[in-house]
Amino acid sequence: MRHRFPFRRQVEFDIAVMTSQDCQEASRLHATGFTRPWSDGEINTLMNKSTVFGFIARPEGGREAGTAMGFVLAQLAAGEAEILTIAVAPDGRRQGMGWRLMGAVIRHLRAEGAEALFLEVDETNAAAIALYRKLGFGEVARRDRYYGDRNAAKSAALVMRLDLG
């Protein structure tokens, strides 16, 4: 699928099903947004589980056109799903990529008959929280002092849910 967004600049990108060949790029992307990034081995281990799936965003033209700009991993079991992680390259943020990656997950889950999608997000990540609320997620729980940064500050994890039925 091709998407065009007139935010900061026009961006054209394709979203494809993620494969084990994408793990190294996904690890690189993960490191741009998380203080404890996942290795390509950790991502590959997840990708090898039958319950885990993901989508990756690349410049228009796919793998041959350039490096990945974003990815999302999710897990589906017993009718409920969870976003395991989502990351977008810094120069790809605020251009609709997170929206489209999440949309791909939601469409896939609805096609699979999932009833609900859960995720956890750091309470300090205002951009992500705004995206999730726009998608229809609501806060269902809070885990105080869940996330820590290098300065030992602790922030809460918000647990959010989207009903898919």
UniProtKB/TrEMBL annotation:
Keywords: Acyltransferase, Ribonucleoprotein, Ribosomal protein, Transferase. PROSITE patterns: GNAT. InterPro entries: AcTrfase_RimI/Ard1, Acyl_CoA_acyltransferase, Bact_Acetyltransf, GNAT_dom. The keyword Transferase applies. GO terms for cellular component: ribosome. Residues 13-165 form the N-acetyltransferase domain. It holds the Pfam family Acetyltransf_1. Its EC number is 2.3.1.266. The gene is rimI. One of its GO terms (molecular function) is protein-N-terminal-alanine acetyltransferase activity. This is Ribosomal protein S18-alanine N-acetyltransferase. It comes from the Bacteria. SUPFAM superfamilies: Acyl-CoA N-acyltransferases (Nat). Transmembrane segments: none annotated.
